[in-house]
Amino acid sequence: MKKKIAIVTGGDSGEMHISLKSAKIIESNIDRKKFDTYVISITNEGWIYHTGVIKQTVDKNDFSIIADGRKVKFDAVFIAIHGTPGENGKLQGYFDLLNIPYTSCDLITSALTFNKFFCSQLLSGLKICHVADAVLLRKGANYSDAEIINKVGLPCFVKPNEAGSSLGISKVKEKNELRKAIDLAFSVDQAVVIEKFVKGREITCGVLNFDNEIMALPITEIISKNEYFDFDAKYDKNKADEITPAVLPQHITEYCQHVSKELYVFFNCKGVVRFDYILTDDEKMFFLEVNSIPGMTDESIVPKQAEAAGISIGKLFTTLIENALKHI
Predict the structure, then answer these.
(1) Of 170, 196, 222, which residue is a domain's last?
(2) pLDDT tens digit string along 176-216?
(3) What is the distance between the alpha carbons of residues 284 and 305, in angstroms, rounded to a whole number?
């Protein structure tokens, strides 16, 4: 009997339209012989099941819908929300209460990895990889431009502490640019992290449980044609080159994959997770962030990495769902 899978999309952040695109790709590539799919949008306007022109409100008491005159409850949820509430643990906690398995990391891992500052500070004491110096600001608190610059130097990156897709990020080169960049980041989040600029190549590695083994996918190097890999460059294929597999010395490739698998295990990750780094000229690898629900659009990195590893997008999605059903 086919399993009933809810594909949850939407969200409350600026990444909503990316989430909607991911959901379309997921729905169109899921194995119909194994799974029946139901796309559910979760936004500020409500929790809505879409089928053709009909829109139906989801029963939040048990996360169920009515389809073809029958009540449908789900065997698992494919979470395709980037940002809040899908990537920060809120939905995971809800599904845990209902005992419904899902394709992503659990509540604790999602909440921790979504918080850029806490995540990097935790890693700084483990010596698994390098972490750039950083300062955390909270909205309403007093701060000194001079103290910030003394800590992280110039240039530096100013970014919302909890947001993805490079939303609200600025590269600050001069002291007089700092306040404007902080205000922009605060327009996205209640906390702002300011990081020391690290010069190098941006690389990223996806990791998942595949055939009961933790598998690191081929590495991608990102070469932005903008100042850095900003929101525009991430979703406009003409604004960045993404090279998969990255052209790296073999020992660097193996080291990056090894570190990524260690981080996957350390954070108790589930599903497919992508780890981003800066590789310096002297071969030091600086951790940037964890993407616990990476994009699944045509422009997204993880599907390309999976393809380079010989894993079709359909097989990738089947693996994620079957792992969720087995609570892996």
Answers:
(1) 196
(2) 999 999 999 999 889 999 999 999 999 999 999 999 999 99
(3) 23
